[in-house]
Amino acid sequence: MLYAHEGIDGEPPRPVSFRTVRYKGGTGFPLKRQVWGELNYALQGIAQINIEGVRFLSPPQYAIWIPPGFEHDASNPQDVLYVTTHIAAELCADLPQQPCTLDLSALLKAVLADFDRRDIRHPRTPEDLRLAMVIVDQVRVAPHFAQYLPTTADILLGPMLSQLQQEPGDKRSAGEWARRAGTTERTLSRRCQEVLGMSFNDWRQRLRLLTALALLDEGESVHGVAERLGYSNPSAFIAMFKRLTGVSPSQMRNRA
Known about the structure:
By secondary structure, the protein is an alpha+beta fold. The chain has nine helices and eleven strands. The protein has helices at residues 106-117, 126-141, 157-166, 174-180, 185-195, 200-217, 222-228, 234-245, 249-255, and strands at residues 2-3, 16-23, 27-32, 37-44, 47-51, 54-58, 62-66, 72-76, 80-87, 100-103, 144-145. It has a six-stranded antiparallel sheet with strand order 2-9-4-7-10-11, with helices on one face. Strands 1-3-8-5-6 form a five-stranded mixed sheet, with no helix packed on it. Helix 1 (106-117) packs antiparallel against helix 2 (126-141) and helix 4 (174-180) packs across helix 5 (185-195). The protein is globular. 34% of the residues are buried.
């Protein structure tokens, strides 16, 4: 694995700093701990960051928030393009105090895109400083949850989710998985809500989306991805993709 060194810590926020970086697949990021907050938003590919030993995955449309002081490292199996925003510790007091996944607003993404277009690393003018504070406000109010695709060592769910990760196109229903595990669908449903914070089908759909993003980045056709993920036709896959990301697979490729 190659390790990124140049500029890996980014630029200290004064009070906010920004950068958009593309890293090749196979790039690793050594363990570090920063005194400021960090927001990582993937524009292409899937950001994978390990925070205090917990793996966070974030496809486009979502971001990973790391509060000040949390130890983290990362590795990217595929190419990834993402925006990193550093926020000074004094502005983080009323932002989420635990690492989490954020559902980003169109406003926040528009401001980040504007800074990238104008190559703004540190806002200096009064107008840009006000825009930077909009980003801080949007992080504060963004819907957030622990992880986009949570994992677990739960004795019932762990083996099941591990098998699905190996074969995301498995089409067995929740009831079939429950019977295979020697339990009832109702018990499985309750355990998913308690442990994962979402239904079995929601978890599987998120897994399929992450897998689809990786396959599309590798050049797989939309038809091929739909087939590998167990969809009966490409239209059903495209509808799922658009519902979760806001764009079709082809539009996401064009943006990338």
